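Hey all, quick one. A colleague (J.T.) asked me to put the HQG job into the tracker so the inputs and the structure tokens live in one place instead of scattered across chat threads. No bug as far as I know, just bookkeeping. Sequence used:
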Amino acid sequence: MDQRDLVRVSKRVSLALRHRPDRFGLTPDGGGWVPVGDVLTGLAIDRATLEAVVADNDKQRFAVERGADGVERIRASQGHSIPVDLDLTPAVPPDLLYHGTSQGALDSIMATGLHRGDRHHVHLSADVPTARRVGARRGGAVVVLTVDAAAMTGDGHLFYRSANGVWLVDAVPPAYLTGP
Ligand code: HQG
């Protein structure tokens, strides 16, 4: 399977595990975990393909674990819109974090802050190149905002770090944002 096909399957797995499990006949548990066998059936893919998607994934979006019951399960490490409890523990972020977005969103963000939208958290990157890549998904000009995570932590905002290194927070008020 070539890289393009892998990305195509990865997007379907993301859709199934984060947003629309019902569409694939899947029922994630409270932590967002789904038996691997159900994913293979639901998406009509073979095990080798799913393993390739999990292993090759540029962002390590998916985690696989074997439960105490011996069943192997998979979940997305972040980015859900379905209700899941990832059971993340608060972590101390680096002093500065970054958020990449489109130029068109800039005025609204500087006025009202970063909102989580359909997802559970606002997603922040630990470095500028990663933030730039996230912002580039929107098309058009990319802007990277700097978040004063140290000040937010000092003021009691809780940060979480997903298993694949994305920093998560409920919201970022405008006072902590510096524009491009
Ligand atoms: C914008 C991908 C106007 C925000 C990435 C973003 C990430 C506002 C969009 C993960 C706003 C939401 C998440 C405001 C926020 N006014 N626009 N007040 N507040 N926005 O996709 O951070 O590849 O839900 O700037 O790598 O872009 O799928 O969030 O542009 O980690 O694994 O509203 O998704 O991960 O968009 O991306 P999203 P995001 P995967």
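Adding what we noticed when we looked at it: Strands lie at 34-35, 62-66, 72-76, 96-102, 122-124, 142-148, 159-161, 167-169, 177-178. The chain has a mean pLDDT of 95.
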